[in-house]
Amino acid sequence: MNTDEARALAEGNPLSFLRVSRAEIELPASTDPHSEEVYQRAAQNFAALRQSALVVEDAASLYLYRLRMGGHEQTGVAGCYSLDEYDRDVIKKHERTRRDKEDDRTRHMLAVGAQTGPVFLTYRARPEIDRIVAEAIKAEPIVDFEAADAVRHTIWRLNDGDRDALIEAVERIPALYIADGHHRAASAARARTELRERSLAALAETSGRPGTSPGAEASTFLAVAFPDNQVQILPYNRVVTDLGGMTPGAFLEEVRRRFELVAGPAGPARKGEFAMYVQGSWYALRSHAARHDAATTAALDVSVLQDELLAPVLKIEDVRTDPRIEFVGGARGTGALEQLVDSGRAAVAFSLYPVDVDDLMAVSDAGAIMPPKSTWFEPKLRDGLLIHLI
């Protein structure tokens, strides 16, 4: 969400966690959201919430966090995961991070002294973990509410027996995968490094006297790990503002040269198909280019669309920097795509088939990088429900 949306959501609610995660909403509209003033306001608001609304556990705990959206449900293990294993790629990545976004979140963590938003992890499902989770959620939850977007959030704190059994079971997982939250994980690693440097400087100033090492908890990062057979990935759709100087007829002819093009539904039925909306009509597309023997990332639908249509036809070479392309999360449905085109805000829209979790894991295992804007995970975790002090 942008600053205006955050300000509107937090209006009239002094306990809104947006006052910590988007503290610029309390400052004049002209305020740079990356100014020191914003981070200091976030720290002040977090301190106030700790006094008025937050519970600080008196012992180390693990939690189960269930998300329920419509008929979909997923339950993950919430706790602190090792940054050393993140460094060693036991916790695997599939996305490059942007330095400016890392800078922002790292400064926020250091200012408030906490990780306030969990990373979304996944792993190949294991029956022994499923059994522990199924038994543990029979207990009374400590958090249970339905948010304004109709997603229900439920959290259980594990008792000592379940916690120890779950830790032992999780230790046998060969790899974890970052599904969503690469910038949060990278920023946690950077915050750890900075706190270690501060610790060394403090020890030097005090001649090594004990009790002067800050940030002992910064060696881990807050995350929730869900089994892969429960994770839901929705398509990450695209709209383009213009047809690159072509008439609609010329554009359709150019697309027809590269794809099988017929009138079709608003969403693709399977991998390798696309749906395109232009001039009030939906078309089904299938590429003429064979991709069966292509490298993993090149065979993904987002890569095919980019390589066979967006780049050669619409001249969009870099989707991360070209202002002519925008991305629409699958949770908004194809109606949002139609609205953008029909209103004139876009000239053409593309509805994609969602990426599989298996695709994401295969790319991560190969040490490769997913194409930009490939995955949209839904439902999403909420900031502020679980917080890790560093």
Strand content: 15-25%
The stretches of 5 or more residues where confidence is low (pLDDT under 50) are none
Given the helix and strand composition, which structural class is it? alpha+beta
The major sheet is characterized as: 8 strands, mixed
Silhouette: globular
Compute the separation of the termini in Å.
26 Å
Could you state the order of secondary-structure elements as H and E?
HHHEEHEHEEHEEHEHEEEHEEEHEHEHEE
What's the total helix number? 12
Share of helical residues: 25-40%
Can you characterise this structure?
- There is one protein chain.
- The protein is α+β, with helices and mostly antiparallel strands.
- It is built from 12 helices and 18 strands.
- The protein has helices at residues 3-10, 18-21, 36-52, 83-87, 99-112, 127-136, 160-171, 182-205, 248-258, 301-310, 333-342, 357-365; strands spanning 63-69, 72-82, 91-92, 114-115, 119-123, 143-146, 151-157, 176-180, 220-227, 233-234, 236-240, 259-263, 273-278, 281-287, 325-329, 348-352, 376-377, 388-389.
- The strands form 4 sheets. The protein has an 8-stranded mixed beta sheet.
- The protein starts with a helix and ends with a strand.
